[in-house]
Design a protein that fits this description.
This protein has two helices and three strands. It is α+β, with helices and mostly antiparallel strands. The chain has a domain of 51 residues. Strand 2 and strand 3 form a beta hairpin. It starts with 8 loop residues before the first helix and ends in a 20-residue tail after the last strand.
């Protein structure tokens, strides 16, 4: 059985708690699944849709109408939304 452990700043130092300085890895992502608790903040910053997934629907942030493009990431890899 897999043993799970919570990550904490005290035990694991700062390496798990640092923000990305460049998010260009997300530049080609046009849809992102959301957890229900992310909905209030996401809805203030971007379109939120129910996207078809495996015979049902998934709460999703729409980052672009163009597949393979994310309008919230600048060419320099910076996040453009708040």
């Amino acid at each position: 059985m897999t043993k799970l452990a919570a990550v904490s700043r005290e035990k694991h130092g700062g390496k798990y708690w640092q923000r990305f300085s460049c998010i260009s890895f997300a530049a080609d992502t046009s849809l992102v699944p959301l957890a229900a608790r992310e909905l209030p903040e996401a809805a203030l910053n971007m379109p939120v849709v129910f996207a078809p997934e495996k015979g049902g629907y998934s709460l999703t942030a729409l980052l672009s109408f163009v597949p393979g493009k994310n309008v919230f990431v600048s060419p320099e890899g910076k996040w453009l939304a708040s």
